[in-house]
Amino acid sequence: MATASYSQGQFTHLLECTICLDIFKMPKVLPCGHTYCASCLQSHINSKLTQNGTRQSSFPCPVCRASTAPPDPTISADKWAELFPVNSMAASLLDLKVDIPSEKRCDLCLKRKKETSAVFYCRECKKSMCAMCQEYHDDISACNKGNILNLNTGNNSNDIPPNLAFMEICSRHSNERIKFFCKDHNTMCCSTCGFLEHRKCETITTLDEMIKTFGISIKSKEAETNLKKCQSNLKQVMSIVTGNIDTLNKDKAAITKQIRSLIGQLKNKLRRLETDLASTMDAKQKSEELNIQSQKTKVQTLTTAIDTDLIQLDLVMTHGSDLQKIIMLHKLNQNQERYLHILTEFQNDFTCASMTLEVDKTFQDLINKLCTLGKINMTRSKLNIISSSATGNTSV
Question: Where are the alpha helices (DSSP H) in 320-388?
Answer without folding.
Answer: 322-349, 361-369
